[in-house]
Structure formats: structure tokens, C-alpha cells
Amino acid sequence: MNDLFSPLTFTHGPAMKNRFMLAPLTNLQSRPDGVLSDDEFAWLTYRAEGGFGLTMTCAAHVQAIGQGFPGQLGVFGDQHLPGLSQLAAAIKAKGSIAAIQLHHAGMRSPRELIGQAPVCPSEDAETGARALTLSEVETLRDDFVAAAVRAQTAGFDGVEIHGAHGYVLCQFLSPTINRREDRYGGSPENRARLVHEIIDGIRSECRADFQLGIRLSPERFGVELAEIRDLAQILMKAGKIDYLDMSLWDVAKEPVEEAFQGRSLMSYFTELDRGAVRLGVAGKIMAAATARECLENGADYVLIGRAAILHHDYPQKVQADPDFVPAALPVTREHLRNERLGPAFIDYMNTWKGFVAQPETA
User: Fold this and answer.
1) Which domain holds residue 197?
2) What are the residue ranges of helices labelled H in the chain?
3) pTM, 2 dp
């Protein structure tokens, strides 16, 4: 139990008081303009109160055209600063590190939501996305950096760059989605160039103790495990980020690619030379025993998603009971209301099969 509840230091910024990070979770609770709502404030600050070492927002879009879902938190304009400042102060007052996840949906931005065709590294017929021009790629880079500066201004301890789940940076990393012929396309190095430039920009523009992480996913959405593993190694050896957050879908699973099967997907990342960079894993971590196993298998910390929806005080419950297992699904709407989920978030969870109990029909 000591491992889960020992502090975790980073090269930049404050230490986590334990090894529990709140996963960045879509919750649909912000206002249409991306301004923080009371419901989203309550949901996040209750997790900070519940003992999470780092409390991360949902994916917050860095451009209006990068919105990926309704009710998404925004960090693309100064109109977002009052709400974000209130949120950062409250999270830190509860003893948790405050972080914003920086996001752009790229071709996954619904046209009906953004009012125009979505954008992508290359034209995409299936989504109707148009290719970004070279100057637009440079603006996208600068807007990720500007969003980090805005997060710093609001009082956050750091940011996480969302490079996973088929959103715009993941689209750049994909050899099939990214068919560009300029310096942002072609070789793995060129396809990762935007990620490196965003990291360099944030390090240059933000204060010396500003914390920086990145989320990657090694499968699906057109990415290849070997390339993501190599990028993870490059990022950790460079030492410019403080933590790498690997979204694995399931921490116990084997890779989808046949050539890599026979061992866990997680093991391809825990075996890397991480230097001073901390490695976290996410994916179906529910029981306390699973969280411990992740650390025993080489992770530095765990990201808790669904279990944190069910229990705002998941870290405290695990500390009190080494055999803690979250509430069995489905749970009632009342349970979720008591856990400070607002109506929009509860309705969203109702779309997850088997998560919310359905009313009995006559």
C-alpha cells in the first residue's frame, strides 16, 4: 500500500501527494461558449476533495473550431479565464495539483457543432474534413501554446497535451491519416514534429516550474504501436515533459497487432528508459488491487476514470480498504447526483451501456 500513497515528484511543479491522477473525462457540462459551469466546477473540486493527487479537467479545446463535443470546456479565449481561475484556486485549496488537458478534435469535430467543415492534417472524405494549410498548422501549434499560457495565467500548476484517441495531434501521428508532403508529413519524425514544437513552445513561454504532460494512445485511430513506443521513448529521453499518460483502453490487455502479442500492451512502455519522466497508465482500473498491480508492473501512477465517477473519494476509499472494489454497475441516477454529477453528465453516462440503472417499465 505504501507505493500508492507515497508522494511522486516531478522535474517541474509540485509533487503529487499520492499516485492517483483523475483521468481527463468528457462530461458535457460546460456552457455552449466553453465557459466553466457550476456543475463542472462541483464535479472536479469534489474529486480534489476526495484525495486525488492531481485533478485534471476534461479535454479543453484550444480553438473554437477544435470543439469535439457539446458542453466542452474551452481554453481558447480570455473569456474563459474567470471560471478557470476559480477552478484552479479551488482544486489547489483542496490539496490537489490542478491541470488542464489541452485538446483539438481535428476531423472528429462535428460539423453541426462548429458550423463549418472540420480540419485534419490531410483531406478526409469520410468526415468531410479539409486539410490544414501550412500556416494553419503553425497557428494550431501557437494556439496550443497560447492555451498553456492561459492556463498558467488562471493559476493552474500545469497542462497535459492530448495526443491520443484520434484527435488532431493523433491524426498528425498517423501514417494513414496524415498524408502531408511538407515538413509535418511523411516520416515518423515529421509527423511528430507538431507535438515536439508544441512542447518546446510551452517550455519557452511558460514559467520554469510549469508542469507539462502528454497523453498518447498506442492503438486504433490509424496509429502504429512501434511508432508510438518510439515517440514515447524520444519524449522521455528528451526530458522536457514531466509525465507521460498512456491510455491503454485496458491495462491488462495484449496488443492488437499480432507481431506484438504474447505480453501486455503496458509492458512496451514500462520497459522504456524514462529518465526523470513519470509514466502513468489508464484503462479499466477499478479495483484497488488493479491499481497496485499497475505500480508493481512498472507504472509510476495510475489514472482513474470510471471509478472516479462512481466515487469522488476513490483514493481515500483505497487507503481505508486495500481490497476496495467500486460500486457494482449499474448505479442509480441518485448515486451519481450524490457524487456531484450534473444532469448533463448523468445523461451522458446513461449512454454508456449498463452504467446507469434504467427505470422499470410496467
Assistant:
1) 20-326
2) 38-49, 81-93, 111-114, 134-153, 168-173, 188-191, 193-205, 225-238, 267-270, 288-296, 306-310, 314-320, 333-338, 343-349
3) 0.98
